[in-house]
Amino acid sequence: MDLSDPSSRHELAKRMAELARDFAAPRSLDQVLADVTTAAVQLIPAADIAGVLLIKGGGEFESLADTDGLVAQLDKLQTDFGEGPCHDAALKQTIVRTDDLRDEPRWPRYAPAAVERGVLSSLSFKLYTAERTAGALNLFSFRPDAWDTEAETVGTVFAAHAAAAIMASHHGRHMQSALSTRDRIGQAKGIIMERYGVDELRAFDLLRRLSQESQVKLIDIAQRVIDTRGDN
Q1: Which CATH architecture has domain 173-226?
Q2: Residues with Cβ within 8 Å of residue 120, at least 6 apart in sequence
Q3: For 138, how many CA atoms within 13 A lie in the half-sphere containing its CB?
Q4: What is the pTM assigned to this prediction?
Q5: Which of 70, 134, 206, 223 has a CA between 20 and 30 Å from the CA of residue 163?
Q6: Mind giving me the DSSP string for 144-172?
Q7: What are the sequence ranges of the domains in the chain?
Q8: How far apart are CA 114 and CA 45, in angstroms?
Q9: Can you give the pLDDT of all 232 residues of the chain as single tens digits?
Q10: Nearest-CA neighbor of 95 among 144, 138, 52, 131?
Q11: Please, which residues bridge with residue 54 across strands?
Q12: Which helix or strand (DSSP H or E) is residue 12 part of?
C-alpha cells in the first residue's frame, strides 16, 4: 500500500472505520481478530498470511485468527523452540522485522524451519493487552525483503485495533462476571429475607459475617445459600 496515494489512504481509513464499528457490534473476539488479519493481508501487499499469537500468564500459547493454517504451524515452532519473531514481539520488543530468514542469526532453530515451509520474511507487532497476557500481530511473506516503512506504519495501526479488540473482550468478560456475582448475591439475600423475615440490609450483613467467620468468599457463601433453597 502506497500511503502517498489518496485512494490507498481512503481505503485504509475505510477499513479502519469498519474495524472500529465491529467493537460495538455483538461479535466474538475471534471474528473481530479475523477481520483484522484478513484486512492486513489485503492492504499490505507483501503480507501473504497473518495471525495473532497470545502468550498468557502461565506461559500458555494461543494462535488466533490465522488466515492460513501455516501460521499456526509457525506459532507452534516458536512455542517449541522458545524463539522467533512473534515470540520476541509479544514478550520483548514493539516491532520485530526480519527481511530474510535465510540469513537470520537471532533464531537459529526457528528460522531454518520457517524457510523450509516457504516463509522468507516476517513482521511482528506487539499487542498491548491486559491480565498478564502478551500478544503479537504477525505478518509473513513468501519472499525476502518484503517490508518497508509503510508496511510497518499500516501494520502498527492494525495491531492497535487487534489490541483494542482483545482488551474489549477482557472488559466484557469482567462485566459479565460482575453481573453474575451481583445476581447471585441478590438471590441469596432474597432467600435469607424470606426464610428469616429480615430486611435487605440484615440479610446482606448475615452473608458478610458468614463469609468473614468461615473465611470463604462472599460469592461462594451466596451460592451455598442458593443451593439450599429447596431445603426445609
Answers
A1: Orthogonal Bundle (1.10)
A2: 100, 101, 102, 141, 142, 143, 144, 146
A3: 32
A4: 0.67
A5: 70
A6: SS---HHHHHHHHHHHHHHHHHHHHHHHH
A7: 4-169, 173-226
A8: 20
A9: 555 566 666 666 666 666 666 555 556 778 878 888 988 898 888 899 999 988 876 677 888 889 999 999 999 999 999 999 998 988 888 899 999 999 999 999 999 999 999 999 999 998 865 555 678 899 999 999 999 988 898 888 888 877 777 766 555 454 455 556 677 777 777 888 888 888 878 877 777 787 787 887 877 777 887 887 755 4
A10: 138
A11: 62, 135
A12: helix 6-22
Angle between helices 6-22 and 29-43 (to 10 degrees): 170
- Tell me the one-letter amino acid at 171: H
Phi-psi group of 220: left, alpha or beta (phi > 0 → left; psi -120 to 50 → alpha; rest → beta): alpha
Annotate 187-216 with DSSP letters as a single string: HHHHHHHHHHT--HHHHHHHHHHHHHHHT-
Query: CA-CA distance, 51 to 78, in Å (whole number)?
Result: 14
Q: How far apart are CA 117 and CA 153, in angstroms?
A: 27
CATH of domain 4-169: 3.30.450.40
- What are the beta bridge partners of residue 141? 121
In whole angstroms, how far apart are CA 206 and each of 7, 112, 178, 192?
66, 64, 21, 9
